[in-house]
Amino acid sequence: MFVIEVYDVNEKRVAKVLKISRKYLYWVQNSVLEGEISEANYKKLKMELKRIINTSEDSVIFYTFRTTRYSQRESIGIVKGGESNIY
Amino acid sequence: MKKSIYILNDGELKRESNTLCLIMEDGKKFIPVEDVSELHIFGELNINKRLLEFLTEKEIILHFYNHYNYYVGSYYPREHYNSGYMIVKQAEHYLAPELRIKIARAFVTGAVKNIRQVLVYYKNRGKNLSETLEYIDQLAPAVDKVNSIEELMAIEGNIRERYYGAFDVIIGDPDFVFNERSRRPPQNQLNALISFGNTLLYTTTLSEIYRTHLDPRIGFLHTSNFRRFSLNLDVAEIFKPIIVDRLIFNLTGKRMIKKNHFQKKLGGIILNESGRALFIKEYEDKIATTIQHRELGRHVSYRRLIRMELYKLEKHLIGEKEYEPFLARW
Fold first, then answer.
1. Angle B302-317/B84-95 helices, nearest 10 degrees?
2. A87 to B34: CB separation less than 8 angstroms, yes or no
3. Per residue of chain A (87 residues), what is the pLDDT tens digit?
4. Does domain B84-318 have CATH number 1.10.1040.10?
5. Which of A39, B47, B60, B256 has the smallest number of CB atoms closer than 10 Å to its CB?
6. Per residue in B293-323, pLDDT tens?
7. Nearest residue on chain B to A80, alpha-carbon basis
8. Element (H or E) spanning B22, and its range?
9. How close is the nearest chain B Cα to the Cα of A55, in Å?
């Protein structure tokens, strides 16, 4: 499945959330990551994040798509990051 | 499915915050480690042991290529599906001549039938290939009769030579003429494409072998020796016509690859940076393409087909089900 993750967390935990998310998803821009992910890894990612965020203060949102066939991605301005397999 | 990552640039690859970090001239790029199945390294990359340990833990293979796009070698992490039983079975089938030729014959049969299928496809599109097809049909039955690996390889070689000769008829582009098969280094553009495509397919197959119990060092058609992996060469034979050759016809037919994608080097002609990047992208798209699988009744990608071929081989070796090569029907 394809997932878009956005987060808004206390400054103290921003780096921690980013660090965990980067193991599974491609960084797109500040507080946004995306990528193809397996069910199991999706669960692992959520579990790891739950462990460090403060649920009364922080917010992490996942948008999941079964396929990306019916969605489009359009960007304006510079491209900061995103998925790629050729570097 | 996890991705293959290709690194064409120079830089440093290291473990950082428990994932992979690629440091290039234009900054740091993080690669999600959980989404990587293998790394293909073309650029000048600095790595350290800490990274190799991390990759071993994550079961990621590294394939290295040199400056001329030749395969150099792989970092093949400690096998995670280590099975003494399978190695013994593989060796048993390698050592007994009648068992070995049975498997080798299956590889050649698969390769020849798939070559035929490609030719039939273009014949139906009005290319003059009747002669080549006749020649192959005449030679093909001999595959079932031969009793030595050498004879088998000779027949395969003859068929493949004739088949490559037909490339000019299929492509029909004066920029991409075949002349003759030349390797190390390739002498013209078309040979460069064939060599590079085959190299990629060999490593892809090797990566898939890593995910099974099979030992890549024991091949059946290609003789095992002291250096090379050979099982991946065997299995790749079946898929060369339907993956690599079709990709080449596609690229030349659509005029996507041009003369300026090549450069002269080392007394031969090889793909340059932009040509390499283009070819890799198209190759990746190709092996990710799914087809309807008749027996399974669902869609599978070409990459998965390679893996399934290996599972079939495993079943043959343990005596569960006779191995039959994959045959393209389109």
1. 80
2. no
3. 999 999 999 988 999 999 999 999 999 999 999 998 999 999 999 999 999 998 899 999 999 998 888 888 888 888 887 777 778
4. no
5. A39
6. 887 888 888 988 898 989 988 888 888 787 8
7. B29
8. strand B19-24
9. 23
The B residues from 275 to 294 touching A (CB cutoff 8 Å) are 277, 280-281, 284
Across the interface, whether the CB atoms of B35 and A37 are under 8 A apart is answered: yes
* Closest chain B residue to the Cα of A27, Cα to Cα: B30
- CA end-to-end span of chain A, whole Å? 24
In a domain, A51, yes or no: yes
User: Which residue range(s) make up the domain with A20?
Assistant: 2-65
Of residues B153, B121, B113, the one with CA closest to residue B137: B113
CATH architecture of B3-75: Ribosomal Protein L15; Chain: K; domain 2 (3.100)
What is the distance between the alpha carbons of residues B235 and B219, in angstroms, rounded to a whole number?
Answer: 9
Q: Given an 8 Å threshold on Cβ–Cβ distance, is B29 in contact with A81? A: yes
- Here the tokens at position B97 are 């001549």
